[in-house]
Amino acid sequence: MYRFLTQNAVAIVFLLLVAAFAAASLYGSSLLPPASYEPLGSAAFPKALGLITLGLVALQAISLIRNHSGTESPMDPESVTRSFSWKKYRKPALMLATMVLYLAAMSYAGVDFRISTSVFLCLAMCLLARPDSPKKVLLIAGSSIVLAVVLDLVFKHLFYIDI
After folding, report:
1. Same domain assignment for residues 2 and 38
2. Which residues form a coiled coil (predicted)?
3. Exposed e or buried b for every residue in 115-151, given b needs 16+ CB within 10 A?
4. 106-143, pLDDT tens digit by residue?
């Protein structure tokens, strides 16, 4: 059991965080009023999102357990910590932090949608693509601004939602 926990500690913590967000989505959907005119209602999307996320968490947990060999061999705890590397989790952690900061900027700080979305998209694309020249960074920044403005126009004029 110790070996399983040490080898999969980051995955287990991540699954617990995702499950907590899914549970919060389900709880939030239960607080919404029932639909009066449309068949699905406003709670359908967060409820479906929470249920799908919990299902995927369960499938990933089953996959972790199945991939673990049932034989426990005595291991030196220092060799486990020496072989563990946080480098492969740096990019996902930075993406998660970027998403949390984006949502916090829009929800709590009241930053304009176009500004926060363009900064978020630029940071996310730079994290994922790792541009190697200033020209590519400027191209990413420009495309982020254009995409944020287009999204704002679509929400305002197509969906009539002023974000």
Report:
1. yes
2. none
3. ebbbbbbbbbbbeeeeeeeeeeeeebbeebbeebeeb
4. 888 889 999 999 999 999 999 999 999 999 999 999 99
